[in-house]
Structures are given as structure tokens and as C-alpha cells.
Amino acid sequence: MKKPFLKSLGSIAAIAIIAIGLSGAIPAPKYKTVTVSAPFPMEPIKEFIFPDRDFPITKYGAVADGKTNNTKAISRAITACNRAGGGRVVIPAGEWLTGPIHFKSNVNLHLAENAVLRFTDNPDDYLPAVMTSWEGMECYNYSPLVYAFDCENIAITGTGTLQPIMDTWRKWFKRPQLHMDALAELYTMASTDVPVKERQMAKGENNLRPHLIHFNRCQNVLLDQFKIRESPFWTIHLYLCDGGIVRNLDVRAHGHNNDGVDLEMSRNFLVENCKFDQGDDAVVIKAGRNQDAWHLDTPCENIVIRNCDIIKGHTLLGIGSEMSGGIRNVYMHDCAAPDSVFRLFFAKTNHRRGGFIENIHMENVKAGKMQRILEIDTDVLYQWRNLVPTYEERITRIDGLYMNNVSCERTEAIYDLKGDAKLPAKNVFIKNVHAGEVTKFIKNVQNVENVVEENMTYDRFRNAANAPAYDYSKLQKEKLGRGVVAIRENPSEVAISWRYLSSDPENTAFNLYRDGKKIAEVSANTGTFYRDTYKSKKSATYTVKPIVNGKETGHIEGAYTLPAKAPIGYINIPLDTPADGVTPSGQKYTYMPNDASIGDVDGDGEYEIILKWDPSNAHDNAHDGYTGNVLFDCYRLNGEKLWRIDMGHNVRAGAHYTQFMVYDFDGDGRAEIIMKTSDGTVDGQGNVIGDAAADYREPGDPRRNLGRILTGNEYLTVFNGHTGAAMKTINYVPERGNLEDWGDNRANRSDRFLAAVAYLDGIRPSAVMCRGYYTRTVLVAFDWDGKDLKQRWIFDSNTPGNGAYAGQGNHNLRVADVDGDGCDEIIYGSCAIDNNGKGLYSTRMGHGDAIHLTKFSPSMKGLQVWDCHENKRDGSSFRDAATGEVYFQVKSGIDVGRCMAADIDPTNPGVEMWSWESKGLRNIKGEVVNPNIKTFSINMAVWWDGDLLRELLNKNVVSKYDWEAGVCKPLVTFTGAVSNNGTKANPCLQGDITGDWREEVLLRSEDNKSLRLYVSPVATDYRFHTFLEDPVYRISIATQNVAYNQPTQPGFYFGPDLKGKFRGYEFK
Q1: Nearest to 36 by CA among 333, 448, 266
Q2: Tens-place pLDDT, residues 858-882
Q3: Which of 62, 711, 764, 1052 has fewest C-beta within 10 Å?
Q4: What does the alpha-carbon distance between residue 217 and residue 204 come to, in Å, rounded to a whole number?
């Protein structure tokens, strides 16, 4: 760097050294050199060897009482040290109050152990103004707290602390109009060549804060070991300095503009072994602003930063935005940002700066979470954009950025390169860069030439704002048929509906046939619904054929036969009711249909029903007593029974014991059933699993624990959905182990089971079997490939580091890709488990009975969760599904056992929410829109009547919210049918089982001899691709049978706020 001011400074120093050496009065200065490796020529750095002389400030009148102002005493010590030819000015242990400290050459300000320099916060103490700079513009301002101008061989060393009093400076962090006017004034003066001496800024309410340390035009600088605690402005500013070392510093400053260290138009510096914890950037390389820097024409160059950590802050390595003098030859290596930063490497400029950035290197850096690993932004103007005009446009030349062997745990993007179209950046080399996960986009390149990328990798991509983000080209999906269904609406009319599939062209219309005769052409501009006048009591077969441009395409046709004497309003599915039984204690019991699920067990594209039969003596885990065996049947919609599985007496009956997952796990087009079994389970072909003679039921002592199962084998079995045959049985994991590990010795808490289906790899569905949620929580994922049942991962709250996940589960769960990586997470009550089997987050709000997951509004990013809690503290909460961030909460001192979420009110945006203790109906902002919810049910919901609002389902009644009257009113009652599970009052199943996009309700008849599938007879003009093609919705059907049943919910917003194109339908 051959610049006039440094030439003259160096010449003066050389002459002085020669003169002193000749006179013999003071020995010539001695230096040791530090050689620094870099990918560019780097001169050895000279480190001055200070004479072995100490000048303790106490000798010059300083008092360590934290009250006496020691400015003059410290100044006297510095002057004495300088006159003696150099040495240490020692700040002993204690608290020392002072104003500005002004350096002289050959002085080492040494902070002894436990020494604390407290700087006053009275601005008048920092007058008269001195020559300094403000964000790259030279001016006269309040003196920096530690200041050196035109000095050489200066140092701050020792293990003590610089700790300014911050009260006044914190007030100045604000930027009122008078401060902004002062910035505009300074900018104008600097841009119009007003002499620096005339730029007097330390006046009035300009409030231009001073630097903590500002060394201006100095040589041979050493900053070593000391601590910094807070700063009014930039923390360490090395301006137009030549040669120095910054090492072993501990910087913590979280105020406005608190960079760690700023090197501006300086050269030949080493920064090493420092820890930065600050409110802005860690290490920043700058080169002045606009006209001032163009006149000085002094680049910042030959800078090495190594072995430094940034604890918190904005950027690990910042280049600019003050860079008008040019920046080159910067090398950062072997550094870390283990927590969170905005960026690792950020080159920033704008069209007013000019200058250049070239040959900047970063390598061997490890980091935690951030927004960008590497970013170039050529339009960074901050507050200056509209504050002042552009006096002259100069585009920054950017050429040669190098990044190698850099990794981070999480980033929004790996690189984001935004060059200037008028002078594109060029030659950016990105090698061996790895991110654990990326959450917004991988890379962006605009106006950059020759971006070379080698071995840039990431483990997963997730974008919570766009969640869910399934790759449907890879996702293993069901092969859905047309789903034609017909029900008699009244004695003279039949309602027919069918599926609109995503594989159908949007202009698909449909021909409808009855018994082979065409009766209608249903337009592409209306719903997939038709009302046929048909008075005959004979059976009739309705066939649907898609047509495009008037021609039948043959693409997925479908048919349904309306049976003779069909009942009005529903499909009747006769059942093979099991025989009554008697327990070992002599108690008689009967059977009733309970939870159901659906699966295409034979591969024809239409669903069969898998029904669980519960004995009348089924028990909650809290209660003792024998129970009858749990049975499972498979039925076609016409009542044909395919098989029966008997779970045996070693599987207890009750809501929390047997969760059955029905899904096509291996992709063969036919559904399997995966559930927990035991010795004595009999499959659908009559084959016994395990030891048929084993009986693990407790006999009671004399009656305590009667009928409970506290020991014995537990299995996990895959059953063939078509035949009921057991295809594979393995030991059940999570195993029971020691009962007391779960919270009691009676299997109350150990036998709380949940289960789910989840696309954990974004391609194939896995079964997730879960045990425990009041205390210990264990989830285990399994994959079925048609032959083997293999464990994918296990999550255990007892594993070190997972303690926050204990006691967070609900009596149910939800599954969705909540973080946008295309893979499912499990929302396990108040916590979430990532697709890789690791904890995603825990709110620590604990257990609850109900939970709802969906996109609550098209205006909200990603998915959200409405949850209730029974801990008599947290009440009900609305949170971000990906992060656990709580949007609003209604706390309560009671156990909040129920909550519901459904878009029932078109006058409020998004889905509404309520709970037992929500204090009314609330919108997505948490506002109460109706305080009176006495008429609201809180169990289930259904899309029934063909508009975009949701209806409520409770027992056998569908009700509609009248938002004008503020009450819910019955819409339809399913007479002769009843619900299950007591006050939970849920159907056997609710969801889009067949027909168009509306949902069906499956209930048992009052005499338990049949199921009734209620299908909406209400015409609708809306037609949407079947919700069954949405993994979130489909899995919500599969998991509906889990413990306390919850209604279906999709992975998208559905309601009256929809606009534009949605699932194959265009809103006008």
C-alpha cells in the first residue's frame, strides 16, 4: 500500500529511529515478526517489543472507587510513558472511572486481572471533537472512548475489561429526525468536498455516537487478551492503519451498530483467537465511503482472520458496504459460528460506492443456523436510500470470492448472489460446502459470471413457509378409482357423485349412464354430482365415463350399483355381529362396532372398510377389569365380509390399546394393516400368532389389577389387507420394559399407545408406533417392503438431550410435512418429531386431549396447530407447526379437555378456533369474534353441504353455524344411527371415503347390526381434486382411529378465502 500519508509516516518513524540510535538517549525500537500463511503474498507483521517499564495510573493520582474521574491521571501516565520511550501504562485491579483515553506512540495500555475501565456517558466529557469518521465519512466528532491518531507501536493488553457506562448512548441508539438530518448533512458535505475540518458533528442533537476504540492512521497495533463489555458504536475501528495484531479478545456488545472489529482502509493485519458476541457483524472489512475514499485511494488489503468464534451476531465476515477505496486479499479460516448468525460471508455494496472487491477467501468454517452461507448484495443502502441523493454513480467491481470446506447445521439458502447488471460480479468459487438443512432455497444467481460449484451438498431441503412441499413425482400414492356412489335421496330421486382426480384434464366432462343407457352429460363447469329421477325400487348400476372435447377417454371409469330397495340417505352395510362372551370373572359382554378405517385391500381403486369391534366391557387404562377380545373385520360397501382377526385375550380392549394403521405400505396397490398383537392373536386365516395357551391377564390381588396385562410378549404384526393373513410378526418396539419407567406399576401409563402413517423419506409411507405421553415418550418408525418389517429409527425422551419431550404427547397425533422438506413430521401433542427421528421442538405445554393441524389461512406461511392442554396453566394455544412459535394463547386454571378448529364464519379470515376455555370463538389473530359458544359442539367436523364452510358433527347431528345470529343450528340428523366413545361422540369414521370432494359419515346402527355410510345429497357446483390425494388429509383418515378420534384436516387452507386456481377449480 504505497500511499502518501503512510509513506510520510514511515519516513518520519525511520528518521526518528536513526536519530535516537545515534544519540544513544533512547534505544532503537525492537520488534519481533509474525509470519502469516495466506493464499496471497503477506508481509510479516511487526509486533513491537515494549520496554520493560510500568507506569501504574495510581502513581499519577488515579483512584479505584468507580466514582472519581481518572481521565487526567491516565493521560499523565500515558505522557510519561511516551516521553520515557515507551512501556506499559498499567490499570490495576479495581473499577476505574474515566473519560476519553488518548494514546501516544510506544504505549501499551495494560489492563490487569480484574481491572475494569468504566467510561463516563456524559457527551461533554468527549469534547473537544477530534478527527474521526462516521460510517466511512471523515469528520470531527465526539472523541472515541479510546483514541489514537498518527501513532505507532501502540497496544491494549491484559485480561481486564473495557466497560463503558451506556445509559446516554443507549438513548442515542434511537434515530430521531434531528439525528437523520445530521447524517444527511455529513453525507452532503463529504459528497461535495467540504474540508474535513469544517465537518463539525459534535453539536446539538446530532447524536453521532463515538467509537469504543478508534485508531486512526496508526502503525504497529496490538490488541491482546482484554474483554469488552458493550460499546456506544463500532467496537474496534482500525482506520487507515498499517500493520497489527488483534488476538485473544472477548468481545460482547449488543447495542446498535456494535460490530466486533472493523478494519477500514488498513493493511497487513492478523485477527486470531477472538470471541465475538455482538449486536452486528463480527469481522468487517471496509474501505471508506464514496468521495472521501476515492480521494484517499487506499484499499484495505492483506487481512487474515483465523481461529475466531462468533457467538451471536449478524455476519461472521462482512465485506463493505463502505468499500469505495477497494478491498482485496482477505483470508478467513478455521473459524466458527456455533449458534446463529444472519450470514457467514457477506459482500455488500451499492451503486454509489465504486471501488472493488477481489481475492476474498473463506475456508474451514463450521456454523449453526443462519440465513445465508454466502451472499453478494449490490443494492445495500439501508437508511441512506431515501435520506440523500446519488451524487455520483460508481459500480463496484467484484472479482474472485473463494469458499472452501464450510458447513452449517441449517440455513435459509446456501448462496444468494445478486450482482449489478451494469458490471456483473465474476469468478465465485464454492467448494466443499455442506448444509444440514436448507429452509428457503438452495441458491440464487443474478448478474454473476462464472460461478463454479464443486461438492456443494445438503442433507435436506425444507421450506416451512411453503409447507407442505411433497415431491408428488416421487411420492408413493394410492391408485384411486372413480369412487362412484349413489344413494336414494327420496323415493323418486337418486343422488350420484364421483371423484375428480388430479390426473383428469381440467376440461374433463363426464357421461353418466344408468344400466348402460346414457342419462346425462355433466359439464366441466359444475360439480361431479348429478340428481337422477329414478322411482323404481329395483337395483340400478350407475357408470361414469370421463370425456374431453366430446369424446370418452377411457381414463379411470367407475360404476356403482344402487341396491334394490335402497334406504334413503345412506348406504347400509350389514355386519356379522360377534357372539356375546363371558370373562373369567363371570361378567357377560356384547359387541358393538367402534372405530373404522379405509383401505383398498384388493387393488381395484375403491376402498374397503376395516372395522374394530369393541366389547361392551372395554376399559380405560385407569380402570381394572377383564375385557372381551378385540376383533377386526373387513367389509366391502355391499356388506361382504372378507375376514375377521381376533386379537386374543392378551390384548386389552379400550381406546388407548389398539391403534391400527391401514395403508398401502409396500406400494403393491393393496393396503396392509399394521398393529400391535400378542400371543393368542388369530389372523384372518385362522392362524395363531405365538403361544395360543399363554394368558398374561392379572387375576387380581384380591381384585387390584384384575384383568390388566403387566407382563408377557408383545408383537407388531403386518396383516394382508385382502385376506387378513399375518405376513410378518416381530417383537413390539417400543417394548414395555420396567413399568415404573413410564410412571406407575399398573400399566396405566406404559400402555398408552399411539400410531401413525408418515412419509418420513418423502417417498414411501412408514408406520410409526408410539408408547407413552404422560411421562416417558417413545416413537419407533418401521418400513414394510412386502417381506420384511425394518426399524427406521427410534426416538426416546429418556435419551440424553430429549428431556424436553417427556410428558408432551396427546391422546392423538397429527402428521404433515410442516417444515417444507417434503418429508413428514409427527406433531406429538406439544412437541414435534422430525422426519429423521430427532426432536424438532417442544413447547413444554404438556399433554392434551385434542389437536388440530392445517393451514389456517392463505395469508399465513406454512401450517399451524391449535392445541389444548390439561396442566391447569396453558389452556389453549395457537402455534407455528414448524417452529413451535406461539401466535396466541388463552391460559386457563382448569384442565382444558377439548378444542376444535374449523372455518365456519365467512366474515372472519381463515379458520376459527374454540375450546372449553377459549372465552369464545377466536379468529387467527386471537380475537374473540363471538363470546357465546354454548351452541357449539367441540368433537368432530365435516364438509357436508357443498359450500366452502365446514359443518360441525356431534353424535348423529350435523349442524351449521349461523354467523349472523351467532349460534349453531342443526342441519341434518341421522336418525337410527348412533356415535361411539361416550362424550367423545365420534362416528366410526368421517372423511372423503367415496363420491365427490365432500365428506361422508360412517355410523353404527342403533342395533349394532350394520354400518351406515351417510353421503351428502346436496348438489354443489364446486369440483375439486379429491382431498384423498393430499397426504396430510389422507393420513388424517388413517390416524383417526388413534385413541381420542380427531376430524380430518388437509395440508392446505380450505374455506371461503380461496381465490384463483385451487385443486383443478378456478374461482371467478
Answers
A1: 333
A2: 999 999 999 999 999 999 999 999 9
A3: 711
A4: 28
